[in-house]
Amino acid sequence: MNLSASGMSLTSMAVTAILIISAVIAAGQWWSRHEVSEFLSKYATIQSDDVLTSFKAMVRRQMFGAIFLIALGIVFVLLCMFLTSQLMLAGFILVLSLATPIFLFARSSKKVEVRARTLMCSNERLQVEYDRVASAWTKKLLPDF
């Protein structure tokens, strides 16, 4: 009986943790999308070194934010597996109801990121550096610019 009670409290803590982590992931995704959208509303093209510097700063924040969200995502997946094993169908429904909006928002945010990575530049020198930064954004873990 005591083992069952402790298992239930562990499950309750996991439910609470997954709800909190889901909210933090959603907030992180919203912040990320908002920042990229704000950059795009200010700059339609990369026309100067100042704009390129702003782009680099935004990409750095995006990359570090992505690392944080990936770490939370790993914890989220582990909690999903635990809750599904403990609560069976109810756990699966809970996991699905939390993961689906996160996935759909992330998927729609990719379109905004692609727009930010495909801006036109005013000259070849800016284009080369912009392309390097845009490539690092998707292919590297840490910024090297």
Compact description:
By secondary structure, this protein is mostly helical. Helices cover 86% and strands 3% of the residues.
Mean pLDDT, all residues: 95
Question: What multimeric state do the chains show?
Answer: single chain
What is the helix/strand order?
HEHHEH
| Uncertain stretches of 5 or more adjacent residues | none
Q: Which value, in Å, is the CA radius of gyration?
A: 20 Å
Alpha-beta content class: mainly alpha
Principal-axis shape equals: elongated
Largest sheet: 2 strands, parallel
How far apart are the first and last residues' alpha carbons, in Å? Answer: 58 Å
Alpha plus pi helix count = 4
Helix content: over 70%
Strand residue content: under 5%
What key attributes describe this structure?
145 residues, mainly alpha, two-stranded parallel sheet, elongated
Task: Describe the structure in your own words.
86% of the residues lie in helices and 3% in strands. It is an all-alpha fold and 145 residues long. Strands 1-2 form a two-stranded parallel ribbon. It is elongated and about 60 Å long.
